[in-house]
């Protein structure tokens, strides 16, 4: 069982590299990552997520890579896997809009990213992609919305990245202080 301070260290040390190696991810590791993510709580236990995961060398990998913006395409094409997290907009039972579908899928991705990191695998999520291209290229049903595209693999050599991207490659990005976002009883009154 993971101790509280071990979990805190895991969260503190997690990061999203842009340099990936081609070292294999086993089926057991992949199952462990996605099984961890599926444990998160969701509104009415809807579990609105679906994932498309493609491996480098497959035709679908090229299609997903071309859904990325120019900046992300420069580095993400070295990752052994690309994926897209999709989320269902409506509840199954009554088809009413689920106002929490993106939140629930984001929670899945947060837990899956930590589980991956614990195994020495990195998930780098990206907002820089075209939802329309994803919908068109993969015939995604209208009921689902692409939430995040991600690169997945083991860390590679930073020196192999293009110069402009090397500068952004850092394991330690700054975080806001608690007083900047945790308030007590009224807005802007630090906890």
From TrEMBL:
<dbReference type="InterPro" id="IPR029479">
    <property type="entry name" value="Nitroreductase"/>
</dbReference>
<comment type="similarity">
    <text>Belongs to the nitroreductase family.</text>
</comment>
<keyword id="KW-0560">Oxidoreductase</keyword>
<protein>
    <submittedName>
        <fullName>Nitroreductase family protein</fullName>
    </submittedName>
</protein>
<dbReference type="InterPro" id="IPR000415">
    <property type="entry name" value="Nitroreductase-like"/>
</dbReference>
<feature type="domain" description="Nitroreductase">
    <location>
        <begin position="11"/>
        <end position="76"/>
    </location>
</feature>
<dbReference type="Pfam" id="PF00881">
    <property type="entry name" value="Nitroreductase"/>
</dbReference>
